[in-house]
Design goal:
Strand order of the largest sheet: 1-5-6-11-12-16-17-18
Number of domains: 1
Oligomer: single chain
Number of helices: 2
Shape: elongated
Distance between the termini: 57 Å
Helix content: under 10%
Length: 268
C-alpha cells in the first residue's frame, strides 16, 4: 500500500475513533455560556513519512524515503529558566454555546526535526535519474527543522460529559471529546545537499485532529486538563532552496494544560 493511501486511511481512522464520543448520552449539567482559556505543554511522536522535493530550476524532483523525525520539548531541560514560548506549548480558547457543546480554537506549537539517519532518495537530479543514499546530518549538509513550529491550528467542535461533581462544587470532573480541521503554519528551515533556504513562517497546508481530555475544575473557575491527541497533517509548497517540498505525517500527542473557565450567563 502506498504511503499516500496509508496516510489517508489513517486520517479517516482518526475521525472514526471519535464517533462514540459524539453519539453518547447528553450531559445533564446546566453550564451553557462558559468561556474558557488554557495554556500548557506537550510531547509528540511522529510517524515516518516521505519527503518530496521539487526544484524545477535545478532539474531536481526526488523523494527522501521513510523519513524518521523527533520533537523538541524544551521543558525537559527546564521551564522556568526560559521564555514560556520556547518549549513546545499549546493553548485552547473555547465557548460552550450549549450545556455540553462548545467551539474551540486549538493551537499546538509542536517541533519537528528530522533525525540523524541514513536516507534513501530516488527521482531525478540535474534532469538525470538518481537512486542513492545519504547520511543525514548537519556536517554533511542536511538538516530539516520545523523547530519554530510544525504548528497545528484547529477549529474544533467539543463535546462534554459530566463524570463527577462535589456537592459544594469545589471540584468537578468532566470528559471532553474534540474534533476539528485547520491550517498548519510551519516555520521552515532546511538544507538539502548543502543548499539552504531562507527560514520563514508560512501557511503550509492543513491538518485534522481528534482529542480526548479529562478536565478537573476546582472552585468553579480554575482547571487542570490532561489530553491525548491524534493529528494528521499534510504539508505542501514548503520553502526550500529554489523549490518546494511536501510531506504528510501523523502525530500522537500528550498534553497538560492549566486553564480558567468563566460563566457569561447568570444561572437561574
Amino acid at each position: 500500500m502506498s504511503n499516500s493511501r496509508r496516510n489517508a486511511i489513517t486520517a479517516v481512522a482518526f475521525l472514526v475513533n471519535l464517533v462514540p464520543f459524539f453519539v453518547a448520552a447528553q450531559s445533564k449539567s446546566n453550564r451553557k455560556g462558559e468561556i474558557y482559556f488554557s495554556w500548557g505543554y506537550n510531547k509528540e511522536w511522529y510517524t515516518r513519512s516521505d519527503l518530496h522535493v521539487n526544484q524545477p530550476e535545478l532539474g531536481n524532483k526526488y523523494t527522501f524515503k521513510n523519513v524518521r523525525a523527533h520533537d523538541n520539548p524544551g521543558w525537559d531541560k527546564g521551564i522556568f529558566d526560559r521564555a514560556m514560548t520556547i518549549p513546545q506549548y499549546n493553548y485552547r480558547i473555547g465557548y460552550f454555546f450549549k450545556d455540553d457543546l462548545a467551539i474551540e480554537i486549538n493551537f499546538d506549537h509542536t517541533k519537528y526535526i528530522i533525525d540523524r539517519q541514513e536516507l534513501r532518495y530516488k527521482g531525478t537530479m540535474d534532469s538525470k535519474p538518481v537512486d542513492g543514499t545519504v547520511e543525514w546530518n548537519e556536517n554533511n549538509g542536511f538538516y530539516y527543522f520545523l523547530n519554530n513550529g510544525a504548528n497545528f491550528l484547529l477549529f474544533n467542535l467539543v463535546k462534554r460529559w459530566d463524570l463527577y461533581q462535589h456537592p459544594n462544587d469545589k471540584i468537578r470532573i468532566d470528559m471532553l471529546g474534540k474534533a476539528g480541521v485547520g491550517p498548519v503554519i510551519p516555520h521552515v528551515e532546511n538544507s538539502l545537499f548543502g543548499q539552504k533556504n531562507e527560514p520563514d513562517f508560512q501557511i503550509g497546508g492543513w491538518n485534522v485532529g481528534v482529542e480526548h481530555a479529562i478536565r478537573a475544575t476546582f472552585f468553579k473557575y480554575a482547571y487542570l486538563e490532561f489530553a491525548h491527541k491524534l493529528d494528521y497533517a499534510r504539508y505542501a509548497h514548503l520553502h526550500i532552496y529554489k523549490g518546494k517540498a511536501r510531506q504528510a505525517f501523523g502525530t500522537y500527542e500528550l498534553i497538560l494544560n492549566l486553564g480558567v473557565t468563566i460563566p457569561t450567563i447568570k444561572k437561574k
